[in-house]
Each structure stands twice: as C-alpha cells, then as structure tokens.
Predict the structure.
Amino acid sequence: MAYKDGSGSRISGRLRSGDLLHAGLALSVLLGFWCVSGLEISTGKIPVLEAMNGSTVLIPCTYSSCIGIQRLYFNWHYDDNGTMLKLCEGSIATEGADPRFSVYHERVEFVGNSKKSNISILLYNITFADDGDYVCFARNFKEKNRNHSATFTLRVVDQVVEIDTTLTTIIVSVVGGVIGFLIFFMVVKALVVHFILKKDDKNKECLVGSSAGVDNTENGHTTAKGTEAKGTPKA
C-alpha cells in the first residue's frame, strides 16, 4: 500500500529505493569480504625442508585468486645473504594457459602447471651453498597488479637425523593399555552386577512362592479341623 506525505510524494517508492540501496551495499560488503584476500601465494603449510647434500628437492609454490588471473607474472629468487639472485621467471596469460618461462640457473627446472595453480621448481644436486631462503613472487594484472610473495627455507645437511619415537610409542602403549583395562573392568563390573540382580530376583520369587505355600497349608489344616468339629455329634 502506498502512502502520501504532505508534499504528495509516495513514501513507499522511497522505501523501495532505500531497500534496494541497502541490499546493494550489503552485497558489495559481502563480495568485498569474499575477495578481500585477493592474490595469495603459498609455499606449503610447513615451508621448511631439511634435505641431504647431493639430493634433488622440490621447492613448492602455488597461487590463488578469488576473481581469477590475467597476465600473471611470477619469479623465483634465492636470498644469498641479502643479494637476491633470480632463478626463474615467467607469465601465464589466462586461467589454464601454458606458462611461458625462463630459467637462469643450470640446476633449476620449472615444473609448474597452471591447471593446478602450480609454479613450483626443482633444484638438482643440492650443495651446502644452496642452503637458505627461496622467495616465490607473483603479480596479477587482473587485480590491478596486486602482488604477493612467500618464502621457502631449505636446510642442507650431511644426513637426515631420524627422530627417536621410542618414548612416544611407550607413552601411547601405556595410555592405550590403561584405557583398555578400564573398559574391561567396567564391562566385567556391569556383568557381575547384572547376574547378582538377576539372582536376587529369583530368590525373591522363591520366597514369595514359599510364603504362599505355607499360607495355603495352614488354611487347609484350619478348614479340616472345623469340619471335624462340626461333624462330631453331641452326647
């Protein structure tokens, strides 16, 4: 229903316009929250790797964007005591397009795949000189050249130290044994209580039956005596 104010304008029309404006603002805020992160670069949940001297390692890097990519530029650098050495760079035109890249290190190979949002590299035959931080950088033209980077740390060692898990195994075994014993004890206890209660119920039934038999016997004797007394003639 439409109402008119003193000037003759329709209030309901104003209300509808206001509602549309509020709805538009709310939608914009929601979209803003959804896309607030923009371009994100990740080198894994645990961006640290300990590897043996002479081995080959994968240095991971992935990208993500809530609105997609266009003319994505990326590169890899090694932090050599403050001097950034470029290892690799490239670009991806659009979503799913094959990356175009250049490699500037003889032991580096680009193994990325745009279909998996992957821009990782392989480092062959690592040496102690390769120990340090590797920085993955990307810039998205579709997000007004928004950029982001992430660091992966490589530790080169003579041998990988195995973590002794004996103590952990013992603790887990003891805890598991205690829990198992408690469960067994509770089951046995429940069974014993169940049988005791069942036996008590049987005893009560026997007592009730015995009491009823005694009452019937006494009543029978009393009736017999009464009959005999009535049947005896008086002299």
Remarks:
- Confidence is low (pLDDT under 50) at residues 6-11, 27-34.
- The first helix runs from residue 11 to 34.
